[in-house]
Q: What sequence folds into this?
């Protein structure tokens, strides 16, 4: 079915002479410029998302055959992106998405041996990292943004005690597109309390998919840290893979409880594909900036940069028993 959808949509796009890539994605506000735009996204991907993640077709996404096809496709994609031949994709990718390589190190695309090396490139400070929506509670998050029938923090981390510890947590949901920077950094300073890696599926994490009844985030492969802080109490950081993401990696040195971690330190990285990060703060531990809350309630993502404020802390001392 997925192969059939791919073939039909690609054929129609060619016949209609429509732009293969443009601002077809979800609404996003550039926090720096104040410009409201749609995310740059291939039109074929947009059409496939609409076709597959709607009330009439969602059942297909949950079948074993579809899940197996997505998994195998993602694994194969990851292998291909790690070969020397994949280097030839970099120039077209940079031109298609208008990526300014002066923002990255190294800036010369010829220095990347494979597309995988390019995908996990490092950047200089103040480059736009992702798009975020923020909500004061899990209930509001489920109502407006993540509508999978099984979504809860307990299901996300597969731990009822940890889920209860973050009951009615405030949620910041970050989403990365393939053209974005795919290394992730600690949002807080503290000490690692726990680490876990959970295998899973590779569903799309586009907002169209997240707002379907399919359990995307609680089914996809993911890894998480719990970080104990003086400023926010305990903070849950969950890195979630998606279609074509072969690896969700948290650096080995940060997997051991008791390891100190500073705000801004690199935690890990995703390999090729879109992906998502959930950061949960205990109830009342943070007050998100009002612009993020207002736009989130309108289902508008906000493009954020390193160093931008997300909110202010309400210090507390809740600990995991």
A:
């Amino acid at each position: 079915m997925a192969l059939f959808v791919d073939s039909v949509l690609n054929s129609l796009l060619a016949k209609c002479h429509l732009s293969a890539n443009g601002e077809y994605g979800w609404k996003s506000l550039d926090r720096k410029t104040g410009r409201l735009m749609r995310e740059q996204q291939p039109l074929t991907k947009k059409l496939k998302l609409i076709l597959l993640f709607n009330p009439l077709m969602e059942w297909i996404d949950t079948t074993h055959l579809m899940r197996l096809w997505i998994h195998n496709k993602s694994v194969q994609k990851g292998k291909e992106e790690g070969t020397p031949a994949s280097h030839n994709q970099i120039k077209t990718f940079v031109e298609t998405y208008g990526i300014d390589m002066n923002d990255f190190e190294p800036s010369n695309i010829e220095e990347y041996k494979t597309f995988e090396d390019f995908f996990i490139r490092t950047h200089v400070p103040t480059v736009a990292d992702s798009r975020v929506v923020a909500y004061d509670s899990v209930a509001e998050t489920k109502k407006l943004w993540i509508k999978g029938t099984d979504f809860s923090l307990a299901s996300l981390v597969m731990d009822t005690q940890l889920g209860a510890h973050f009951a009615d947590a405030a949620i910041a949901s970050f989403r990365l597109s393939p053209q974005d920077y795919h290394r992730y950094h600690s949002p807080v300073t503290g000490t690692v309390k726990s680490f876990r890696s959970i295998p899973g599926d590779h569903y799309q994490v586009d907002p169209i998919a997240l707002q379907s009844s399919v359990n995307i985030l609680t089914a996809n492969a993911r890894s998480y840290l719990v970080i104990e802080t003086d400023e926010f109490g305990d903070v849950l950081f969950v890195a979630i893979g998606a279609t074509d993401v072969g690896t969700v990696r948290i650096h080995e040195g940060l997997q051991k409880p008791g390891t100190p971690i500073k705000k801004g330190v690199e935690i890990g990285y995703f390999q090729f594909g879109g992906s998502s990060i959930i950061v949960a703060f205990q109830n009342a531990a943070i007050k998100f900036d009002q612009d993020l809350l207002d736009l989130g309630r309108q289902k508008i993502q906000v493009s954020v940069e390193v160093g931008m404020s997300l909110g202010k802390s309400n210090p507390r001392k809740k600990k995991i028993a």
User: Anything to note?
Assistant: Residues 10 and 195 are 41 Å apart (CA to CA). Confidence is low (pLDDT under 50) at residues 15-19, 317-321. The radius of gyration is 19 Å.
